[in-house]
Design a protein that fits this description.
Elements (H helix, E strand, L loop, with lengths): L4 H44 L3 E5 L8 H10 L3 E7 L1 H12 L3 H5 L7 E6 L6 H9 L1
Antiparallel strand pairs: 1-3, 2-3
Length: about 130
């Protein structure tokens, strides 16, 4: 009346194996995509927090560098501010060029700068346009 018993159990065994493999593969791919998404979000935030811009500070004796730095740190979009003095900039330039520009010119042509790192929430294109406008 039906298929022989040996053939029926063989077909059922392969169907179970096939369904087990397909479910296993689906769950593995779902887990792998979830892991890639989580890693991408962390990497995206890390890259966005490396966005920075430099502000040239005045080198005049009457200029208050600390007040300017504290004003920059108080801004809502600033994560951190790093001061680069004229001397440290001259040392880095000497390493890059291979010779000291202060010996050639007789004075240090570089001015102190503040490197401003942005918070990751403010690195969207529309936020950057607002920051540039201020």
């Amino acid at each position: 009346m039906g298929a022989p018993k040996a053939k029926q159990s063989s077909t059922l065994r392969y169907a179970r194996l096939l369904s087990f493999l397909s479910i296993t593969f689906t769950l593995f791919m779902l887990g792998a995509l979830g892991l890639v998404y989580v890693l991408e979000q962390g990497l995206s935030k890390e890259v966005r927090e490396r966005i920075s811009f430099s502000v040239e500070l005045s080198d005049e004796p009457g200029a208050n560098t600390e007040a300017t730095l504290s004003e920059l740190r108080a801004l809502p979009y600033v994560r951190s501010v790093e001061l680069i003095s004229a001397d440290s900039a001259a040392k880095s330039l000497t390493e890059v060029l291979g010779e000291d520009p202060t010996k050639i010119l007789g004075y240090n042509p570089l001015q102190p700068m503040a490197k401003v790192y942005l918070k990751s929430e403010y690195t969207e294109p529309d936020s950057l346009k607002k920051i540039i406008a201020t």
